[in-house]
Amino acid sequence: MLQKGGSPMKKIMVIGAGQMGGGIAQVAAQAGYSVILNDLKEEFVTRGLSVIEKNLRRNVEKGKLEAIESAATLGRITQSTALQDAASADLVIEAAVENMVIKSQLFAQLDEICPEHTILATNTSSLPITEIAAFTKRPDRVIGMHFMNPVPVMKLVEVIRGLATSDEVYKTIETLSQEMGKTPVEVNDAPGFVANRILIPMINEAVYTLYEGIATVEDIDQVMKLGMNHPMGPLALADLIGLDTVLSISEILHEGLGDKYRPCPLLRKYVKAGWYGRKSGRGFYQY
Ligand code: CAA
C-alpha cells in the first residue's frame, strides 16, 4: 500500500529513544506512520515516550493540535527493546550513539534481520554513510537522514547519499522527509556533511574565545544573538547539542579535514569532567 506522497512504507523503527530518536519517532508518528521506538532498556524507551507525550500535551494546550490527534499519534508508537522487531519495518532510522563500532554492529545485525526491501537510514551527525553501508549487503538501501535538534521544531533534514545509495532510495527518503513536515536537502558524504562542517567550527571558535579569556560565556552568546540574529548563542547551543557530541564531531572534522578543526582543550576538559550540557545539568551553563 502506498502512503500519501507515494513513499512505499508503513512501518518505521527508530533505534535510540534519546533526544534525537524520540523526536524522530514523534514526527514520524505525527505524519501517520506506525512507529516502533527501540532502545536497549525499557526505561530508556519509557523516558523517550514520556518526552513525546509532554511535547504533544503542550501542543494541545496551545491549541496547535487536537487532543484526538495527539492520542492517535501516541497510539501509533509501540515500544521495543528487541532489535528483532526490525523484521516488520519498512524503514529503520538509527539514532544510537555516535560510535562507529556500535553502528557497524547494529547495521550488520539489521541487515540480517530486515526484509530485502527495508531501507536502513542513520541519523549520524558526521560518521561516513559509505562506511556504515559497507557493513551491510545492501549498500544501495543505506542512507543518511540527519535531523536537527530539537527535531519537532527544526525544519531541516540533511539527506546524505553514500557512494552506492540508489536514486529510488534517495527519492523515497526525500518524500518521507516532506511528509514529516521537513525540508530535505541533498548532501554528499563528507566529514560533518554541510550542517556540522559549518556549525561545529563556529561553536569550537566560541569555546576558544572563552578559553583565551576574551569574553564571558554570557557575553559571547550575547554577541552572536544580538549581532548575528542567532536564536541562541553558540555556547548555549553546545549545551543543547551535548558537549560530548560536539567534541566527537569536532574530532571527526579534525581527523578528516586537518588541523584548523582542532577541538579546543577547554571542550575536552568539560567532557572529561562529565559536563555534557543540559542533559547532565552542567555545561557552559548550569541547569
Ligand atoms: N522539543 C519540542 N519543542 C520544542 C523544544 C523541544 N526540545 N524546544 C522548544 N520547542 C518549541 C516550543 O514549544 C515552542 O513552540 P511554539 O512555537 O509552538 O510555542 C518553540 O519551540 C519555541 O520555543 P521557545 O519559545 O521555548 O524558545 P525559543 O523561541 O528560544 O526557541 C529553539 C527554542 C527552537 C531551541 C531556538 O532557540 C532555536 O532554534 N535554537 C537553535 C537550535 C539549533 O540551532 N539547532 C540545531 C542544532 S545542530 C544539530 O542538531 C545537528 C547536529 O548534528 C549537532
Automatic annotation (TrEMBL):
Pathway: Lipid metabolism; butanoate metabolism. Keywords: NAD, Oxidoreductase. Residues 192-287 form the 3-hydroxyacyl-CoA dehydrogenase C-terminal domain. PROSITE patterns: 3HCDH. Pfam families: 3HCDH, 3HCDH_N. InterPro entries: 3-OHacyl-CoA_DH, 3-OHacyl-CoA_DH_CS, 3-OHacyl-CoA_DH_NAD-bd, 3HC_DH_C, 6-PGluconate_DH-like_C_sf, 6PGD_dom2, NAD(P)-bd_dom_sf. The record marks 146 as: Important for catalytic activity. This is 3-hydroxybutyryl-CoA dehydrogenase. GO terms for molecular function: NAD+ binding; oxidoreductase activity, acting on the CH-OH group of donors, NAD or NADP as acceptor. Residues 11-189 form the 3-hydroxyacyl-CoA dehydrogenase NAD binding domain. GO terms for biological process: butyrate metabolic process. Gene3D superfamilies: N-(1-d-carboxylethyl)-l-norvaline Dehydrogenase, domain 2 (1.10.1040.10), NAD(P)-binding Rossmann-like Domain (3.40.50.720). Belongs to the 3-hydroxyacyl-CoA dehydrogenase family. NAD(+) binds at residues 16-21, 39, 98, 103, 125, 149, 279. It comes from the Bacteria.
